Amino acid sequence: MPLTGKFTTVNPATGADGPAYDGHTPEEAAAILGKVHGAWSAYRRTSLDQRADWLRRAAAVLRGRREAFAGLMTAEMGKTLADGRAEIEKCAGHCEWFADNGPGLLAREAVDIGGPKAFVTFNPLGVVLAVMPWNFPFWQAIRFAAPALMAGNAAVLKHASNVPGCALAIEQVFAEAGFPQDVFRTVLIGGAEVEPLIADPRVAAVTLTGSVAAGRAVAAAAGAALKKCVLELGGSDAYLVLEDADIAAAARVAAAARMTNGGQSCVAGKRFVVVEPVAQAFEAALVEAMSAYVPGDPELEETRVGPLVSKKARDEVHAQVQASIAAGARLLLGGAVPDRPGAWYPPTVLADVRPGQPAHDDEIFGPVAAVIRARDEADAIRIANDSEFGLGSGVLTGDRSRGERIAAEDLEAGMAFVNANVASNSRLPFGGVKHSGYGRECARYGMLEFCNIKTVVIADLPTAHPAAD
């Protein structure tokens, strides 16, 4: 939490301070929550079609301010302008998907119970508190907000402290779209102020995307208050590289998976488990593919990867790399801190990665690919599943049916992709197992996380018994 009550931004590309924003006091945050709760009382009665219309307007606002919002992400957390534009378009499409499909997905479901009328209805829970991270500043927030608002909930956003401008801009998107005043609000508070909001009876449920430690804290607070929570936590996604794969193509998929958002993504591929017969060839091909990602000015159109979010984050990544090398990993590419201002780190490839090394055991939140050798398919599956995480996973193979079997039946993860990068999609449930969290976002499954799935039965009053003769 900022000790001064200010949220000062830092440009990761230069290390220079950016704009500073006044934070909210705990009392101000509680007052904002009160306004949101009051707004929800009326908002929950709005029609599904009206909510859908507001979401479509939100999509239009996002597209209309795409350049400004992309630039804001570049300035606050180092995302390339190209990636920022794509993120805003994804947010707009997400709003439109729930606008188009939400009314049908939330319609009452009739159930034949052989007598009385019965149906299931999907009612909003109330105010959802969202605790969101910095790596996809708009997408993470819109990902939860669009289905939550479509379902009739109101929302309070506590965003990461290093993206306050993005947090306030998201609030403005929904205001400009015409949503009723105070239905969606941002609070600029530190992590220490989250627990009192969770405990507040005006909060009905909580969603968090973040670290395992943050997930434990939020889950404990929500559990103590007996409130629903959805957690999307860390990941150490494993991609299996099998002997029947086109190795050059597999390496390109792996590099793209690892370099998603400069490596700063929970669902970025991180561990590449390669069967022995093709391990040497894959290592060489991966080095070539990763070398194509040259760090550069995130404001330039041609730049594919920008800086990490902060020097602190960069130093943590480098420490994990150095510790892995000290424990026996072999450095094939990168691994050195550039002598330049800002939070820069090069694409890095480590081979001979084994248990006991951070590259094997922990999540590295940066552009570091770990290559782990396996004897065969069964051993590769064992290694992939030997992790505390279970968010995404992948299979790279020339045999689609083989990949389908492994993805569907063998990998312990919430998502498994064959010959493609793991990515979120409005139409598919998104989430993990094990220490990667629980609950789902996106699709109908995500929207229903914050609904009261209510059973309703309507019968006639029983006929009075006739008087005894």
Write structural notes for this entry.
By secondary structure, the chain is an alpha/beta fold. The protein folds into two domains: 6-233 and 436-456, Aldehyde Dehydrogenase, Chain A, domain 1 (3-Layer(aba) Sandwich), CATH 3.40.605; 237-418, Aldehyde Dehydrogenase, Chain A, domain 2, CATH 3.40.309. Helix content is 40%, strand content 20%. The protein has 15 helices and 20 strands. It has a seven-stranded mixed beta sheet, sandwiched between helices. Helix 9 (247-258) crosses helix 10 (279-291). The chain is globular. The N and C termini lie far apart (80 Å). The model has no long low-confidence stretch (mean pLDDT 96).
Descriptive tags:
alpha/beta; Aldehyde Dehydrogenase, Chain A, domain 1; seven-stranded mixed β-sheet; 469 residues; six-stranded mixed β-sheet; Aldehyde Dehydrogenase, Chain A, domain 2
Strand order of the largest sheet: 12-13-14-11-10-16-17
In percent, how helical is the residue content? 25-40%
CATH H level, superfamily name of the largest domain = Aldehyde Dehydrogenase, Chain A, domain 1
The CATH architecture designation of the largest domain is: 3-Layer(aba) Sandwich
Shape descriptor: globular
CATH topology of the largest domain: Aldehyde Dehydrogenase, Chain A, domain 1
- Count of alpha/pi helices: 15
Radius of gyration: 24 Å
Q: Kindly, what is the distance between the CA atoms of the first and last residues, rounded to a whole number of angstroms?
A: 80 Å
Briefly note the structural class of the backbone.
Answer: alpha/beta
Q: How many DSSP E strands?
A: 20
